[in-house]
Structure formats: structure tokens, C-alpha cells
Design a protein that fits this description.
Layout (H helix, E strand, L loop, with lengths): L1 H28 L9 H11 L8 H11 L7 H20 L6 H26 L7 H46 L1
Helix pairs in contact: 1-2, 1-3, 2-3, 2-4, 2-6, 3-4, 4-5, 5-6
Amino acid sequence: MLQNKTRAALCMDLALMALLIGLDVATRLLPHAPGFMPVAASALFAGRMLRIPALAVIVPLLAMALSDAALPSEDWRLKLVIFAAIAVPALVGILSRRWNRAVATAAAMVSCSLFFFTASNFAVWLFSGIYSLDLQGLTQCYIAALPFLQNTVAGDLFWTGVLFGGAWTIQNGAMLAGRAQ
């Protein structure tokens, strides 16, 4: 009996992973506002929802790898930083499982958005050759990236609302349907 429950839990986790990865890949490849994507939100969601938490980190990394295959290549060092930064929300989701309030979830997502902005633009400054490798160049890099920060935070919060709100609606709809019988 326990083995069947474990198998069912794994199947549910894999199905959720496939759904999230598919959403992430599709939205990265379809036209979208720069930075307005669900990858970080799906990573946070996976970290909170998957019964096997270690699988959560695979969601953003596989989504990025699959969609990057169809997108123009970036410097491998920049890509490495981006992959590491986009995995952070999955870890935050795992660590924040007991915080199930909307405000805590939004705060966790905004923190992840700010971390991604800081890390990815630091890597752009360091590896792109566009900016001088001094404080002035770093400042110019972050100022030039500010429009992306707005889209990133807005997209991360929007997709967090869609994913967590959808899960809440499904869960409470099932509970209400059970009560009606």
C-alpha cells in the first residue's frame, strides 16, 4: 500500500513538473515583454508543492535548457549565473513550505526577483564587455537594466498569483464539491 502511494506521489510530481516546464518553455519562446515570464514563479511553486522537494530545482533548469536550445546563445559564464539565479526560487520554495500566506509568498517572490536582477546584471557587467569594469560601469549596467526589473517583478508576481491562485482554487473547489455531495 505504501509503495502505491509513493508511486502515485511520484507520478503526480512528474506530471506537475511537466506542466510547469511546458509552461515555462512555451512562454519563453512565444512573444512576451522582456522579463515577463513564469520561470521563477514556477520554480517557487514547484519548491512549495512537489512532494519530492529535490525535483523542484529541475523545473527551472530544464525549462531554461530546453528553451535555450531554440534561442540565441549567450556567453557560457553569463548563462551559468542565470541558471544558478533562476534555481534560487525553487530553494526558497522548499525552505518556505510552512509559510502559506499570500503576503509571505509574494515577499519570497519579490526577494527572488531582486536576487535575480542583482546576480544576472552583475554577470552582464562582469562578462559582457559592454561596461567598464569599475564602479561607474557597474552603476551604468544596473541603471540600464531598471526597465527589466519592473517587468521581472511584475511577471514574477503575476505568474505567482496564477499558479498559487489556481492551486488554491482547485483545492478549495474540490473541497466544496465534496461538501455538496
